[in-house]
Amino acid sequence: MKYKIEYDHEYKDFEDVWNIEKHYLNPITISSIEQVLEWENKNHDLYIFIKDIMKKEIVGEITILPLSKNQFNKFMNNQLEDTEINANTLLKYEKNKSYYLLFSAIAIAPNYRNDKIILSLLLEGLNNKLKMFYSNGIKFLNMCAQGQTSDGQKFIENFLNLKFKKYTKEGYKLYCFDNQKEFDNWIKKLPKYIEKYNNNNLK
Question: CB–CB of 58/51 below 8 Å?
Answer without folding.
Answer: yes
